Amino acid sequence: MSYKPNTDRYEEMKYRYAGASGLKLPELSLGLWHNFGTVADHGVATDILCSAFDHGITHFDLANNYGPEPGSAETRFGQILKKQFSSHRDELIISSKAGYLMWSGPYGDFGSRKYLLASCDQSLKRMGLEYVDIFYHHRPDPNTPLEETMGALATLVAQGKALYVGISNYHAKEALQAKALLDSMGCPCILNQVRYSILDRWTEEDNLLDAMDGKVGMICFSPLAQGLLTSRYLDGRVPSGSRASENVFLKAKSITPEVVEKLNKLDQIAKRRNQSLSEMAISWLLKDERVTSVLIGASSVAQLDENLKALKGDTGFSKEDLKAIDELTT
Description:
This protein is of the alpha/beta class. Helices cover 37% and strands 15% of the residues.
């Protein structure tokens, strides 16, 4: 059956500018990190993407190594894009990245010009695209001159293979250096994609948002701390099928009594706000207008719908709520 998007899809979503650029992203973006690769159910993946677009999520975020297996998320996304979204390409923001190990040998990792240009070509081929809207360098490379890495990003824009470029996992000092280099090349850096949540506050310690001064937008991944900031672990047990049970990224041994106590206290704050813990976690990130978008993951349409609830109702925070959250997490 041919997919027909919801005609009111833009009414419930708000959009924010990516730094000082003219590009707007939805407050919630969909990341295809771990639920769209080889082992994913194609029908479920299709339903998630279609439902996301129906709710105004126009930004789909990928990377060359997303899977599992590496590359398979881009391949699946390309298949779904061709069948369901081919007539909506100009309504979509599609991003990809390169920076982690992708193929064997000395040219398949980090930030050389050789690796980044080849990676972008491979990503475009897997997705069946002529260009991506945003291409990121996925992580800093301590052994390649930053001028070379940023120069490769600028080349991709000059070649028409990327419309915008960004960086990911860059701390304030190196992000400012990258921004200055890209500015000098006439290719502004519009986004820094970083891990940030109520439980993971390194960006505040690093003074990253202030350093970017609104010129480079922040897009946040792992807003729910790999699922900790949901109702799954409030009773201290590790549910079957959860990331902690599968020992993927979030380890079962990390669900300690101290962590469970903290999560329950945060959940009490959320309930006072008439939100679930996950809704509050997303709202907490979006309270700062310098955050361009929050990247959510979803393994089902129901999970996607739960995250979308964070955009409804009163998303503001009282001084008392913020103080209580800080006392628990900083």
